[in-house]
Amino acid sequence: MKNKLKVLRAERDWTQAQLAEALDVSRQTINAIEKGKFDPSLPLAFKAARLFKLAIEDIFQDEV
Amino acid sequence: MKNKLKVLRAERDWTQAQLAEALDVSRQTINAIEKGKFDPSLPLAFKAARLFKLAIEDIFQDEV
DNA sequence: CAAAAATGTAAAGTATACATTACTTTTTGT
DNA sequence: ACAAAAAGTAATGTATACTTTACATTTTTG
């Protein structure tokens, strides 16, 4: 599962810590998801989609 | 998290077992998700979206 | 360049997604 | 009504999402 969190953060000039707080998860969770260590849960994916006002599919991509 | 799996199955006249096989999970997993016992993982949500040719948000809804 | 901020990473623990087995209840078809 | 199929449910086990603490490395800024 790939994702655009790093780019979306960069566009807004947000740190991992700021995004983590906005999504109510730990900074390590954001870091791990950005680095592809694991996939977010569906509820967390929904939270991110709401935050960025994007579709889940626009943020997270099933890599084939 | 609400979902339309039961309706989508009904439209296609599929059993829980058939949907489970198509998504490569157990029948109990489908049953539990339909009954709201737990949310699917993001990868499973993507699989369902591909199968039904719908957006994840069209199948699963964050209840407020 | 030095300090500070941001990012990366690791270990250990908790919560939840999912499997398997097995059984009960409900629905469907003849 | 009866049998068969489908759906519901429960217990136990495993995998993974996520937390917390802690520290190392990289990047940014004065």
Describe this structure in words.
The structure is a homodimer of 64-residue chains. Chain A is mainly alpha-helical and 64 residues long. Chain A has one domain (2-53): lambda repressor-like DNA-binding domains (434 Repressor (Amino-terminal Domain), Orthogonal Bundle), CATH 1.10.260. Helix content of chain A is 61%, strand content 6%. Chain A is built from 5 helices and 2 strands. In chain A, helix 2 packs across helix 3 (27-34). The longest helix of chain A is centred in the last third of the chain and has 11 residues, at 42-52. Chain A starts with a strand and ends with a strand. Chain A binds chain B through residues 1, 39-43, 45-46, 49-50, 55-57, 60, 62, and chain B through 1, 39-43, 45-46, 49-50, 55-57, 60, 62. The first copy, chain A, binds a DNA duplex (30 and 30 nucleotides) through helix 3.
Sum this structure up briefly.
Chain A is mainly alpha-helical and 64 residues long. Chain A has helices spanning 5-12, 16-23, 27-34, 42-52, 56-59, and strands at 2-3, 60-61.
- Please tell me what the overall shape of chain A is: globular
CATH superfamily of chain A: lambda repressor-like DNA-binding domains
Q: List how many beta strands of chain A DSSP finds.
A: 2
Q: Give the chain pair forming the largest contact, with residue counts.
A: A-B, 15 and 15 residues
**Overall residue-averaged pLDDT value of chain A:** 97
Low-confidence stretches of chain A: none
CATH class of chain A: Mainly Alpha
Structural class of chain A: mainly alpha
* Topology order of chain A in helix (H) and strand (E) letters: EHHHHHE
Could you name the CATH topology of chain A? 434 Repressor (Amino-terminal Domain)
* End-to-end distance of chain A: 9 Å
Count of helices of chain A? 5
